[in-house]
């Protein structure tokens, strides 16, 4: 006799979502060991973090890679590195997500080659390449090529996987970083769906996919979203995403199969919302954020990866990642969440929230499409300006106390935390020698290759790039010949060129009703007068490959509103370029923003450059995720101030910048 389900329960408990941990650092060998440990602890999918040189198409020995190798992910410079990364891991049986965008084609070619070497059939390989280049122009900054060329690469990957890897998700439309850059739920949904439309239109218009197979393309598109601590709103956002995706794919692309119209997404909950102050509070933040993407059965994430409690302090240790994995496992296996139908069907509160987000996102989508699509909206700066303005408003609410952040702007009294009493040992550290070893090994790899085969493969890649041919076959030739990541990207740079995205500062709103800003503005004006006229000039610099520019942009906006003339040239500058700009623009202060952990290399290089240029007197301040011991070293080296995420009051920071300028010029620090 079959046992009936209790009233209100499902007849059979749902299977849990894929549980991942975003992981990678130091080297392919070290990351392989980390993967093995996490899988042994019950993780059910891999999520690969690549370092910034890999993400931006540079080899470990390139000048721009200095200080960045192995910092925020694993360096993969060639086929040998990819072999080491997955050695002993059966790719045919694993679901692998790779957070890679501009060089997604290259990394997928490396992955597929290694899988084939293992004996796997490509048609059975399952996983995802993020491959969403649009959000890189807006928020994360690891783009390489102009938008049209980038969308072509995305379309080529989609067409290739449709033929060869039908279980692979070739693009993962990523709204995660849009939220980090300031997007409201309405903007996050609207802008992400505009990107999805651009990708699908590019595939359709490329002529590589027959019209009767476009529904299969739609069925392999996935999304990667962010979930903040306002988990009820996040739950409604995901239901709104699903409703609009069903509408767009049915009406715009004629997909009739509901299964192919289903909104499929993975999630990492909000890392930038984690705090350096009282970091133990991040545990409950992470749990609440996880609920937003798991509570609603009809809009539940297919895969979840959680940050660790100490990510605002530095790179998490294996134990920290284990703790985050256990949070997922307790919810999935100990609670009764997976035993019930959707808990919110018929809820008038949730329905109203969803309706509001759907209506607003539909308007945003219509605005972008009316401009000619998401590429036009990127190139005109519309999207970037909207995000910078939204983030400025979010910061204003936090600084005013309208939005409470526990331990930061309220309830700041605290006991010493046993979790952080170990100091620098509370996070994973990357041995600086890793970079030197990687540089030596890539040179050894190059010297051991058949040079003629490499040259021929790169020549074919450049030739095909100048046509409309699908670039995956030429890329696979490059993989087999032993071409490196930097060489592959370099060949395409020669054909496509590089792209510097709009900064979004010109259209950004200021601090509005910040009462303290008026006093700082008067101080800026008075200090400029004491120094002989003109306006105080601030150079905001982003050295190296770190593309997380949100903080730098918000400082630039607030300083501009306080009366500074701000020089900001965007991301990915060499230290030489920053020094040259500081001298040529005759600035009063240099502010460096570094979130990737490369501050110990980049900042001393700027200081040395200023001395060599005859400007040792020019004060330098630094902001970023900088451990206390490193901050002390930077100050000892000559840095005037070090700001970290706990310094959240932007107007107060700008006021301190005025003090630094006064001190550097022999004026009373407390004046005027």
TrEMBL record:
<dbReference type="Pfam" id="PF02310">
    <property type="entry name" value="B12-binding"/>
</dbReference>
<dbReference type="InterPro" id="IPR036724">
    <property type="entry name" value="Cobalamin-bd_sf"/>
</dbReference>
<keyword id="KW-0846">Cobalamin</keyword>
<comment type="subunit">
    <text>Heterodimer of an alpha and a beta chain.</text>
</comment>
<dbReference type="InterPro" id="IPR016176">
    <property type="entry name" value="Cbl-dep_enz_cat"/>
</dbReference>
<keyword id="KW-0479">Metal-binding</keyword>
<dbReference type="InterPro" id="IPR006098">
    <property type="entry name" value="MMCoA_mutase_a_cat"/>
</dbReference>
<dbReference type="GO" id="GO:0031419">
    <property type="term" value="F:cobalamin binding"/>
</dbReference>
<feature type="domain" description="B12-binding">
    <location>
        <begin position="535"/>
        <end position="664"/>
    </location>
</feature>
<dbReference type="GO" id="GO:0004494">
    <property type="term" value="F:methylmalonyl-CoA mutase activity"/>
</dbReference>
<dbReference type="Pfam" id="PF01642">
    <property type="entry name" value="MM_CoA_mutase"/>
</dbReference>
<dbReference type="InterPro" id="IPR006099">
    <property type="entry name" value="MeMalonylCoA_mutase_a/b_cat"/>
</dbReference>
<comment type="similarity">
    <text>Belongs to the methylmalonyl-CoA mutase family.</text>
</comment>
<dbReference type="InterPro" id="IPR006159">
    <property type="entry name" value="Acid_CoA_mut_C"/>
</dbReference>
<dbReference type="InterPro" id="IPR006158">
    <property type="entry name" value="Cobalamin-bd"/>
</dbReference>
<protein>
    <submittedName>
        <fullName>(2R)-ethylmalonyl-CoA mutase</fullName>
    </submittedName>
</protein>
<keyword id="KW-0170">Cobalt</keyword>
<dbReference type="GO" id="GO:0046872">
    <property type="term" value="F:metal ion binding"/>
</dbReference>
<keyword id="KW-0413">Isomerase</keyword>
């Amino acid at each position: 006799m079959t046992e009936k389900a209790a009233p209100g329960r499902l007849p059979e408990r749902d299977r849990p979502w894929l549980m991942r941990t975003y992981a990678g650092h130091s080297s392919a060998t070290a990351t392989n060991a980390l993967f093995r440990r996490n899988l042994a602890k019950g993780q059910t999918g891999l999520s690969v973090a690549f370092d910034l040189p890999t993400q931006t198409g540079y080899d470990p020995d390139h000048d721009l890679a200095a200080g960045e190798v192995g910092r925020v992910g694993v360096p993969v410079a060639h086929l040998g590195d990819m072999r080491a990364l997955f050695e002993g891991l059966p790719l045919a049986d694993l679901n692998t997500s790779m957070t890679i965008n501009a060089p997604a084609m290259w990394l997928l070619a490396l992955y597929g080659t290694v899988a084939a070497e293992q004996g796997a059939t490509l048609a059975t390989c399952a996983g995802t390449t993020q491959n969403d280049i649009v959000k890189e122009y807006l928020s994360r900054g690891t783009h390489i090529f102009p938008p049209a060329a980038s969308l072509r690469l995305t379309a080529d990957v989609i067409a290739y996987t449709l033929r060869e890897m039908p279980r692979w998700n070739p693009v993962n439309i990523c709204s995660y970083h849009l939220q980090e850059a300031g997007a409201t739920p309405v903007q996050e949904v609207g802008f992400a769906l505009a990107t999805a439309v651009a990708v699908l239109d590019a595939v359709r218009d490329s002529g590589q996919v027959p019209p009767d197979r476009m529904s299969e393309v739609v069925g392999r598109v996935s999304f990667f979203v962010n979930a903040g601590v306002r988990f009820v709103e996040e739950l409604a956002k995901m239901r709104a995403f699903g409703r609009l995706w069903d509408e767009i794919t049915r009406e715009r692309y004629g997909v009739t199969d509901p299964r192919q119209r289903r909104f499929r997404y993975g999630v990492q909950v909000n890392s930038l919302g984690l705090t350096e102050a009282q970091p133990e509070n991040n545990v409950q933040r992470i749990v609440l954020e996880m609920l937003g993407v798991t509570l609603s059965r009809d809009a539940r994430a297919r895969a979840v990866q959680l940050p660790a409690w100490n990510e605002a302090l530095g790179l998490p240790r294996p134990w920290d990642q284990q703790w985050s994995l256990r949070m997922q496992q307790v919810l999935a296996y100990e609670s009764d969440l997976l035993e019930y139908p959707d808990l919110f069907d018929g809820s008038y509160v949730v329905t109203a929230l969803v309706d509001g987000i759907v209506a607003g996102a539909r308007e945003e989508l219509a605005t972008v499409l009316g401009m000619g699509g998401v590429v036009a909206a990127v190139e005109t700066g519309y999207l970037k300006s909207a995000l910078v303005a939204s983030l400025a408003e979010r910061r204003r609410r936090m600084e005013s106390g309208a939005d409470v952040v526990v331990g930061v702007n309220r309830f700041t009294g605290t006991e010493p935390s046993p979790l952080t009493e170990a100091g620098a040992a509370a996070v994973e550290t990357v041995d600086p020698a890793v970079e030197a070893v990687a540089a030596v090994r890539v040179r050894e790899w190059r010297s051991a290759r058949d040079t003629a085969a490499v040259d021929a493969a790169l020549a074919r890649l450049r030739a095909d790039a100048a046509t409309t041919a699908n670039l995956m076959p030429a890329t696979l030739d490059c993989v087999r010949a032993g071409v490196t990541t930097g060489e592959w990207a370099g060949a395409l740079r020669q054909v496509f060129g590089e792209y510097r995205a709009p900064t979004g500062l010109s259209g950004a709103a200021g601090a509005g009703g910040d009462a303290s800003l008026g006093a700082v503005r008067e101080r800026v004006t008075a200090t400029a007068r004491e120094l002989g006229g003109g306006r105080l000039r601030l150079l905001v610099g982003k050295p190296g490959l770190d593309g997380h520019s949100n903080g730098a942009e918000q400082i630039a906006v607030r300083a501009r509103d306080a009366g500074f003339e701000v020089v900001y040239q965007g991301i990915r500058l060499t230290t030489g370029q920053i020094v040259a700009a500081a001298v040529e623009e005759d600035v009063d202060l240099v502010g460096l923003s570094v979130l990737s952990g490369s501050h110990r290399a980049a900042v001393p290089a700027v200081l040395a450059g200023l001395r060599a240029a005859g400007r040792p007197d020019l004060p330098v301040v630094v902001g970023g995720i900088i451990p206390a011991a490193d901050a002390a070293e930077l100050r000892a080296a000559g840095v005037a101030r070090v700001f970290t995420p706990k310094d959240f009051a932007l107007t107060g920071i700008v006021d301190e910048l005025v003090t630094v300028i006064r001190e550097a010029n022999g004026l009373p620090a407390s004046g005027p």
